[in-house]
Backbone:
């Protein structure tokens, strides 16, 4: 099974409260499909944008062959640079 690490939409769009989960998900699943593991979150509605990424879990998935989306890769690099 190929695994992709990407963003999954969460929150309530009716109240304009949209945030994103960073998840490990099978590559062929839809964006809001069943996840294997939640790895963090990203909330762009806050100023400045808030995010949390569990680096150890993410690196474990990548070591086992998962690929990151461009957005998740950007957040990962920011997290590594900041030393979170």
Residues:
């Amino acid at each position: 099974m190929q695994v992709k690490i990407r963003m999954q939409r969460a929150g309530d769009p009716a109240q304009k409260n949209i945030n994103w989960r960073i998840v490990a998900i099978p590559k062929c699943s839809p964006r809001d499909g069943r996840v294997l593991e939640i790895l963090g979150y990203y909330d762009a509605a806050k100023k400045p944008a808030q995010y949390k990424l569990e680096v150890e879990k993410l690196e474990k998935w990548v070591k086992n062959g998962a690929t990151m989306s461009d957005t998740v890769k950007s957040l990962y690099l920011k997290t590594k640079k900041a030393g979170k």
